UniProtKB/TrEMBL annotation:
Presence of the UniProt keyword Ribosomal protein in the record: no
Keywords tagged on the record: Cell inner membrane, Cell membrane, Membrane, Transmembrane, Transmembrane helix, Transport
Protein name as catalogued: TRAP transporter small permease protein
The species this protein was found in: Marinomonas communis
Location (main, coarse): membrane
Pfam families linked: DctQ
Lineage per the UniProt record: Bacteria, Pseudomonadati, Pseudomonadota, Gammaproteobacteria, Oceanospirillales
Subcellular location as annotated: Cell inner membrane
TM helices/strands, residue ranges: 20-39, 51-68, 89-112, 132-150
Keyword Oxidoreductase: no
Length: 173
């Protein structure tokens, strides 16, 4: 049962992460277009510039769980790198239970009023010619936290398998 939960959670993280990764290519192409229009043709567009910012936010916020799933996040591993797999698993479990999950739950809870206020007025850019979707951008905050909670639970379950000498859970199973 835990294996199905872990595979399902990691499947969600993988699909979202791989889809969002394509935004980096689009972001690069759009940035080149902005530079060409601005410096080559003297045409500026606040909406295009804000589009790049929106895509950057989506890559970072929606890709966080995918990065965590693949253990590619920033880790200060002065001690951790020398730990045994079982000790690493304990650190991951305790870190998930006492740091990651509470932080994500608190941040998601605290963002609800902030996001709701933005939706109530359908908040738009303060810049003339900017994008009218600030409320959608702010919605990424609780979505990011939900994705990290899902992946955090999967990581805890995976590490419990290591601690209790169960077969290590992987995405492929």
């Amino acid at each position: 049962m835990f294996n199905k939960i872990v595979c399902g959670a990691e499947g969600i993280s993988s699909v979202v992460g791989k889809c969002v990764a394509w935004l980096t290519l689009l972001m690069m192409l759009l940035t080149c277009l902005i530079v060409l229009l601005r410096y080559g043709l003297g045409i500026g567009s606040i909406a295009l510039q804000e589009s790049v910012l929106y895509m950057h936010a989506m890559v970072f916020m929606l890709g966080a769980a995918y990065t965590f799933k693949d253990d590619e996040h920033v880790r200060v591993d002065v001690l951790y790198r020398d730990f045994s797999p079982r000790k690493k698993a304990w650190v991951n479990i305790l870190g998930g239970l006492f740091f990651l999950l509470p932080f994500c739950a608190y941040t998601a809870y605290m963002s609800i009023d902030y996001v709701a206020a933005s939706w109530r007025v359908l908040e738009t850019s303060q810049e003339p010619g900017g994008l009218p979707f600030v409320y959608l951008l702010k919605t990424l905050i609780p979505i990011m936290m939900a994705l990290l909670i899902i992946q955090g639970i999967a990581d805890i379950l995976k590490n419990l398998g290591v601690v209790f000498n169960k077969q290590q859970l992987t995405e492929a199973q």
